[in-house]
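Reopening this one. Same input as before:
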Amino acid sequence: MSLKEKIENKVTEIIDNDFEVTDITDVPNVDDSRLTFGNTGLRFEATVLYIDMRESTKLLNNHNRKTTAKLHMAYFHTIVSIANSLGGSVRSFNGDGMLVFFQGTTKQSLSTAVKSAMKMVYMLNHDDSKVKKKLEKYSALNFGIGLDYGKILCTKAGKHGSNNRDLVWLGNAVNKSVKVGDKLSEPYHIGISSHVYFNLNDDVKIHKYTDEFGYKHENNMWFKNQHTYNGIVEDYYYTSYYWTVD
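Same output, byte for byte:
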C-alpha cells in the first residue's frame, strides 16, 4: 500500500467513525493508557494558566544560543516549580509558551491558579528575586499570563512511537487564556476572564492593608478591560499584583 493510500485510509477512519469522550477528574499525560490514536478523548474541568515569553527572537539576536538556552531553562524551571508546588499540572511546552492545568471546579482551585500566576510574576519580575537579577544580567524577560476556566478535551495526535505523538488540548478555556495573556505587557503581567474574576477568593482579589495612621483600606487588585473573542466583546481583568515566594 502506498503512503498516499495509508494516509487516506486513516483519515477516512478518523472522520467517518464516532468519537468517544470519557469524563475524568484528573489531568491526563502523554502516556495515559486511556488515550489511543483512535477516536477517543478525555474531558475534564480545570483552570487553564497560559504563560508566554515575549520577544524570544530578540533574545536570539542579542545572545548566542548557549546563553539563550540557559535563559529558557531558568524561565521554565521557575514556572514549573511554582506550578507544581500548588498542585498545577504542567503540559504542552510549546516554544516559549506553557500550559498549566489546575483541575477542579471550586473557587479555591481558581484562586490557587491565580496565586500561582502571582508567584511567577514575583520570581520573574520582582527586585527581591534572585531569579530576576540573574536573568536581567542578560535580558529582562517580558511575559504575559492568561487564565480562564472551563471544560477541556484532550486527545492524542500523531502516530505510535515516542517521538511521533503529543497531546492536543481543546476548549475555549485554552484559547481564551492564550488570547487574554497576549493582551498583557509590562507591568500588567496577569489577565483573567470574567468567569475567573467573579469566582476568586478575596485573598487574590482584594488588597487589605493598614496605613501609617492606623486606617484600614481595601483595594481591588484588578482593572477591567475588554477584548473580542469569537466575535463577541467580553470583559477581562488584569493586575500588576504579585505574591511573594518564601
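So the earlier flakiness isn't reproducible anymore. For the record, The CA atoms of residues 205 and 221 lie 6 Å apart.
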